[in-house]
Amino acid sequence: MKEKLQKIRENAIAQIENSDGLAKLNDVRVAVLGKKGELTAVLKSMKEVAPEDRPKVGQWVNETRQEIENKLDEMKKKLEAAELEHRLENEVIDVTLPAKKNRVGHSHPNTMVLEEVERIFTGMGYEVVEGPEVEYDYYNFEALNIPANHPAKDEQDTFYINDKILLRTQTSPVQVRVMEQKKPPIRMIAPGRVFRADEVDATHSPSFHQIEGMVIDKGITFSNLKGTLTQFVQKLFGKETKVKFRPHHFPFTEPSAEMDVSCFKCGGKGCRFCKGEGWIEILGCGMVHPRVLRMSGIDPEEYSGFAFGIGLERITLLKYEIDDMRLLYENDDRFLKQF
């Protein structure tokens, strides 16, 4: 047995000294010390050794293992040092080269304003609801008190897919869907992309975004609408912002109004930004028409509500003092990285 162990030790040390890499060295370790290695096979055959000789044989095996392991560790350090030296010689780093900049992106201006608007309204107890961009004519027009041949249909220059399906011109259809599916009280905003056949210029695009809001409950009045929108614009543009409501007409609200805010650039005195008027038109609003409530399954004798619609791009342009809507979609890095 001693001679067998001596032979194993000599063969292992010879293979270790002839190893030209860490992979080869690991192969030797496995072949000798692994679960199916030569030295492990000797240990498994200990049951064939006479009981009185087992302590001595066990000592020989442990001494052989220790010598082989010491030689493996010694050779591993030599090979690692040689490999490191080789890498240092070949992987030369020019410390005079400029470093690569790690450029981290950020949200688009539209996204930043939308998130701010959502934070304001969710803080007032509203939920954010989304709906389909490809919509039925019924939800986009009829359920909003805009029947067939109504002039409002011509004003919106709609993209029709067929006579019943279209690309939505507003996010108001989401409000109708919510009223059909949920019982009052309802407090919601519906942000999303809308489509109209407009020519592209500084203030128009065939694809843009709206944020529409609605509240339905018992005892809702125009005062609630005014208070809510005043709170909204003061959080968005500053506490000094004032509001002004002008009579208007929307088929789905009665009474209806356009809301102006005092120019946050000049404080209402008149400047180039507000075209000398001191006021800036920002959104349309009104009390939900009783017929709209009735068509959605809500009793107008018991419930009332208000609704409003804001153009996301419009308030983005105002908030960041951008004079051309097209800049938001040209993906010019020189422009976007300013925000």
UniProtKB/TrEMBL annotation:
GO molecular function: ATP binding; catalytic activity, acting on a protein; magnesium ion binding; phenylalanine-tRNA ligase activity; transferase activity; tRNA binding
CDD domains on file: PheRS_alpha_core
UniProt cross-references to Pfam families, sorted A to Z: Phe_tRNA-synt_N, tRNA-synt_2d
Chain coiled-coil ranges: 61-92
GO terms (BP aspect): phenylalanyl-tRNA aminoacylation
Binding residues for Mg(2+): 254
Domain of life from the UniProt record: Bacteria
Catalytic activity annotation: tRNA(Phe) + L-phenylalanine + ATP = L-phenylalanyl-tRNA(Phe) + AMP + diphosphate + H(+)
Entry note: cofactor: Binds 2 magnesium ions per tetramer.
Cofactor: Mg(2+)
Enzyme Commission number(s) of this protein: 6.1.1.20
The protein's enzyme class: ligase
Gene3D superfamilies: Bira Bifunctional Protein, Domain 2
Gene Ontology annotations for the cellular component aspect, listed alphabetically: cytoplasm
Domain Aminoacyl-transfer RNA synthetases class-II family profile: start-end pairs: 113-330
Subcellular location: Cytoplasm
Sorted UniProt keywords: Aminoacyl-tRNA synthetase, ATP-binding, Coiled coil, Cytoplasm, Ligase, Magnesium, Metal-binding, Nucleotide-binding, Protein biosynthesis
Family annotation (InterPro entries): aa-tRNA-synth_II, aa-tRNA-synth_II/BPL/LPL, Phe-tRNA-synth_IIc_asu, Phe-tRNA_ligase_II_N, Phe_tRNA_ligase_alpha1_bac, Phenylalanyl-tRNA_Synthase, tRNA-bd_arm
Complexes and interactors: Tetramer of two alpha and two beta subunits.
Family per record: Belongs to the class-II aminoacyl-tRNA synthetase family. Phe-tRNA synthetase alpha subunit type 1 subfamily.
Entry protein name: Phenylalanine--tRNA ligase alpha subunit
Phylogenetic classification of the source organism: Bacteria, Bacillati, Bacillota, Clostridia, Lachnospirales
